[in-house]
Task: inverse folding
């Protein structure tokens, strides 16, 4: 409701300024007409006053009303959307136009004037044609769901021409430049002469001002797309798609709010770029490559889990000699026939396949950035490895909701950062799960109740 009232208030202000401009220009027109009548009647004072009043009213309308209304017309929105950039070919062409124009002025040859007019008309036609090519296009960016750092993935760009008659030519999908990326900056400096001598040998120094075009310092952001995808031809009322390969070096959140369509059609005098507001966000999981540390840890974990417990279950643990307390239904008759002695099957307990991966997030300063990223990648690699096996997985980490889904845990690892006081080992409940703990703490500082059913991996 507040936004509606604000819009109505702005429209009311626009209408007020419009009628003010209309009234001011009407008065200025009447003053100009009566100044002409006064001049014809021979009254110089009335002519001067009325002419001055007409100019004054026109100036007030121009300063107060025209800039406000100009910001609200559609042409301003068009300039905000379409960016123009003069190419090298366009600069050379304008230089040639200037040479021919100077020759036409010096010689007075009508044929040269016709040539200049045709060359200037080609620039206008090129601008209108390229503008028409960019109109009526709709872009869609389709991203993959699960993305791992360092692993190439395929994304798809779909470009649709909504016009029913006119096709589009030479369209490139690019990442737009940041607006206002360069600015003129005035700063204080010192003028010295001669400038080729050392400072102690110069004749004089004086304060001066220097104006330079400097790039603005912009906060770094991780963007999804930073390349070029080219579409040479797009028929009318059709859709064309292209596949591009994305490769993200680091884990984290990648976000891009704008894409751009660019063309130099037809003569490459101008490069026109149309910005498209299209928000896309992607969570890149840590790398799950089988690093050496992971390869060394996995056999130890498998051995400890195997020796953890044994009992009733569905998977065979071992075949051993028969004991009086063993049920007869567990007798392995094939092994008994081979050895001539009673042999029974011993099964692994179902609890043996329950594994809990614990990421003990260290405090800031405990690890270097490279070591911390290596620990996060190791946690993701272990989680991904055991998710592909017949294992009942669960996860625990500071600030983690406890969801058993592998992608939820990978999403947590993609965004995690070192936090002070973030250890969860003191509050970690002791259950029937086997714990795989990644930590930077010493063994003495870990609760002893976790040792019997845990394997420690030091980051």
Result:
């Amino acid at each position: 409701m507040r936004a509606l009232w604000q819009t109505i208030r702005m429209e009311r202000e626009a209408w007020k300024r419009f009628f003010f401009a209309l009234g001011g220009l009407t008065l200025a027109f009447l003053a100009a007409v009566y100044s002409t009548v006064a001049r014809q009647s021979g009254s110089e004072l009335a002519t001067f006053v009325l002419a001055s009043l007409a100019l004054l009213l026109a100036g007030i309308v121009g300063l107060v009303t025209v800039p406000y209304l100009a910001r609200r017309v559609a042409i301003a929105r068009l300039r905000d959307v379409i960016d123009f950039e003069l190419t090298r070919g366009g600069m050379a062409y304008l230089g040639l136009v200037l040479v021919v124009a100077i020759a036409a002025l010096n010689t007075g040859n009508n044929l040269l004037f016709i040539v200049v007019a045709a060359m200037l008309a080609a620039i206008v036609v090129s601008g209108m044609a390229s503008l028409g090519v960019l109109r009526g296009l709709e872009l869609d960016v389709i991203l993959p769901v699960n993305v791992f750092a360092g692993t190439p993935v395929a994304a798809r760009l779909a470009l649709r021409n909504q016009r029913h008659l006119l096709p589009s030519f030479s369209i490139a999908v690019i990442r737009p430049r940041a607006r206002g990326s360069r600015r003129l900056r005035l700063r204080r400096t010192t003028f010295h002469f001669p400038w080729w001598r050392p400072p102690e040998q110069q004749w004089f120094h004086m304060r001066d001002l220097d104006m330079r075009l400097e790039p603005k310092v912009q906060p770094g952001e991780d963007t999804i797309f930073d390349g070029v995808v080219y579409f040479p031809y797009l028929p009318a009322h059709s859709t064309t798609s292209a596949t591009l390969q994305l490769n993200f070096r680091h884990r984290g959140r990648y976000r891009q709010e704008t894409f751009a369509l660019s063309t130099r059609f037809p003569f490459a005098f101008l490069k026109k770029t149309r910005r498209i507001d299209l928000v896309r966000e992607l969570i890149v999981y840590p790398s799950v490559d089988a690093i050496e540390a992971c390869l060394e840890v996995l056999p130890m974990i498998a051995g400890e889990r195997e020796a953890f417990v044994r009992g009733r279950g569905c998977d065979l643990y071992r075949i051993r000699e028969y004991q009086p307390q063993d049920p007869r239904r567990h007798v392995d008759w094939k092994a008994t026939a081979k050895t001539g002695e009673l042999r029974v099957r011993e099964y692994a307990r179902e609890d043996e396949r329950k594994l809990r991966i614990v990421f003990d997030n260290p405090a800031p300063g405990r690890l270097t950035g490279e070591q911390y990223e290596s620990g996060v990648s190791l946690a993701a690699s272990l989680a991904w490895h055991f998710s592909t096996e017949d294992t009942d997985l669960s996860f625990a980490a500071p600030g983690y909701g406890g969801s058993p889904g592998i992608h939820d845990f990978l999403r947590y690892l993609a965004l995690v950062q070192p936090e002070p006081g973030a250890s969860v080992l003191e509050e970690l409940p002791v259950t029937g799960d086997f714990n795989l703990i990644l930590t930077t703490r010493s063994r003495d500082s870990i609760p002893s109740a976790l040792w019997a059913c845990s394997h420690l991996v030091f980051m």
